[in-house]
């Protein structure tokens, strides 16, 4: 039996993870959960699945949950990291949203854990630091949950074939504005942007999908997960989201992973790899599938995608600053205080001010850059 710590248990990935764990309750025990402030949802999960340890990031919520459950609730970043380091934990699923996921991932690696990673922001902001930490802690390893990265991971047979890759082809749905003319972008509303054509996900990633920053983040995530240079990473728009990504090998073979758009599939792969267990979810029926289509992305319309490639190529603290600026801007947009077109505009302004840092990158530099970019973005918005 493997003890699973689920960080971000109340979210979209968290909920799907609970389902997968329950479908295999002979193999996995939901040992600990964490969230930000959803007290009732956490209380329900804890009671239903006999969860042993709990953390709430938000202090008030932690106190409230302690009263509801009548037992100790960990709190804040310290609490998240305590769960990530718990000696009884075998697998840490990081399904937190945003840069808050970075330190728990690093702590889990430092404690030799298997990290099943949905929190792409971790890899984007701190990729080189993660490389160092994994090298220092050879017992630890990451299995990706992000659907595209799971597809690539599977095509690479768990990373064994990285050196044989010609390029990675990351698929993108294109989001709700794939067919909108750029002239209409000024008028995009929050409701328009939350209307993802395929996936039902948390709000932040849904806005990122609409701006295609999500695909940009995924390019950096792929670079850091699979050690593939940016010149060998392509993005292809595939509106049906049935092909989750592809790997072109140097012998001319193009491998793809297909499946219904259901995150429980990559979550289960991340938990059970290299084994493939039964999962109750929809199957793709090829004869009844509609056409599968593929297009070049429009880098002019989706400026965030171009900016992310630029941030990746510049390296250093630029990805951390880009990610932080984007988080602030998406939050403002969701609150109705920013135009959709202001997201790439201000991300670019922050990136222009970002210094090029060469040489070894430390965790302190990454976290400082994150803080600095948030302040800078707020400053631009005043
Ligand atoms: N949803 C999807 O299909 C996919 C998501 N991902 C990635 O997975 C991650 C999670 O996404 P998703 O599930 O959609 O997000 P959601 O917004 O649905 O859920 C986020 C979870 O994180 C918790 N959380 C948010 N902020 C904090 C904080 N400061 N401290 C502790 N917990 C916090 C929330 O708790 P609370 O409920 O209390 O707010 C919630 O449990 C993201 O990095 C996303 O990019 C990747 C691929 C697909
Ligand atoms: C399910 C998943 O992995 C998301 O990251 C998804 O890819 C978002 O859709 P887009 O392709 O529109 O960004
Ligand atoms: Mn994805």
UniProtKB/TrEMBL annotation:
Q: Where is the 1-deoxy-D-xylulose 5-phosphate reductoisomerase N-terminal domain?
A: 4-127
According to the entry, every stretch annotated as the 1-deoxy-D-xylulose 5-phosphate reductoisomerase C-terminal domain falls at: 142-226
Extract the PANTHER family matched here. Answer: 1-DEOXY-D-XYLULOSE 5-PHOSPHATE REDUCTOISOMERASE, 1-DEOXY-D-XYLULOSE 5-PHOSPHATE REDUCTOISOMERASE, CHLOROPLASTIC
Pathway as given in its UniProt record: Isoprenoid biosynthesis; isopentenyl diphosphate biosynthesis via DXP pathway; isopentenyl diphosphate from 1-deoxy-D-xylulose 5-phosphate: step 1/6
- Name of encoding gene: dxr
- Enzymatic class: oxidoreductase
What family is it from?
A: Belongs to the DXR family.
Q: What is this protein called?
A: 1-deoxy-D-xylulose 5-phosphate reductoisomerase
Residues the entry annotates as binding Mn(2+): 146, 148, 218
Where are its TM segments located?
A: none
**What are the names of the required cofactors?**
Mg(2+); Mn(2+)
The Swiss-Prot or TrEMBL record annotates one GO molecular function as: NADPH binding
- Which terms under GO biological process does the entry name? isopentenyl diphosphate biosynthetic process, methylerythritol 4-phosphate pathway involved in terpenoid biosynthetic process
Summarize where NADPH binds, as residue positions. 10-13, 119, 121, 202
Q: Which Pfam families match?
A: DXP_redisom_C (PF08436), DXP_reductoisom (PF02670), DXPR_C (PF13288)
Keywords assigned: Isomerase, Isoprene biosynthesis, Magnesium, Manganese, Metal-binding, NADP, Oxidoreductase
């Amino acid at each position: 039996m493997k003890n699973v710590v689920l960080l971000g248990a109340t979210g979209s990935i968290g909920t799907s993870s609970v389902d997968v764990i329950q479908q295999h309750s002979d193999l996995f025990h939901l040992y600990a959960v964490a969230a930000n402030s959803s007290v009732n949802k956490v209380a329900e999960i804890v009671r239903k699945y006999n969860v042993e340890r709990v953390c709430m990031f938000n202090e008030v919520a932690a106190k409230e949950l302690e009263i509801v459950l009548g037992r100790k609730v960990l709190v804040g970043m310290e609490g998240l990291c305590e769960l990530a380091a718990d000696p009884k934990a075998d697998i840490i699923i990081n399904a937190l949203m945003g840069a808050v996921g970075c330190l728990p991932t690093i702590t889990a690696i430092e404690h030799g854990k298997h990290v099943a990673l949905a929190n792409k922001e971790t890899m984007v902001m701190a990729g080189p630091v993660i490389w160092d930490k994994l090298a220092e802690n050879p017992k630890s390893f990451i299995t990706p949950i992000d659907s595209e990265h799971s597809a690539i991971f599977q095509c690479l047979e768990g990373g064994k074939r990285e050196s044989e890759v010609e390029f990675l082809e990351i698929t993108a749905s294109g989001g709700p504005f794939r067919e909108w003319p750029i002239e209409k972008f000024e008028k995009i509303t929050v409701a328009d942007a939350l209307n993802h054509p395929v996936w039902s996900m948390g709000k932040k990633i849904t806005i990122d999908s609409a701006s295609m920053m999500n695909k940009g983040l995924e390019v950096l995530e792929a670079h850091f997960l699979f050690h593939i240079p940016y010149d060998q990473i392509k993005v292809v728009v595939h509106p049906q989201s049935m092909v989750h990504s592809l790997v072109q090998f140097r012998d001319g073979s193009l491998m793809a992973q297909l499946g219904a758009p259901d995150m429980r599939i990559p979550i289960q792969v991340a938990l059970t790899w290299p084994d493939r267990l039964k999962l109750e979810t929809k199957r793709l029926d090829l004869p009844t599938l509609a056409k599968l289509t593929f297009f070049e992305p429009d880098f002019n319309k989706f400026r965030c995608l171009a900016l992310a490639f630029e941030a990746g190529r510049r390296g250093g603290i630029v990805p951390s600053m880009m990610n932080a600026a984007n988080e602030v801007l998406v939050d403002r947009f969701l609150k109705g205080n920013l135009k959709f077109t202001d997201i790439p505009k201000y991300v670019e302004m922050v990136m222009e001010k970002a210094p090029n840092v060469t040489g070894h990158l430390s965790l302190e530099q990454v976290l400082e850059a994150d803080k600095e970019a948030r302040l800078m973005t707020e400053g631009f918005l005043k």
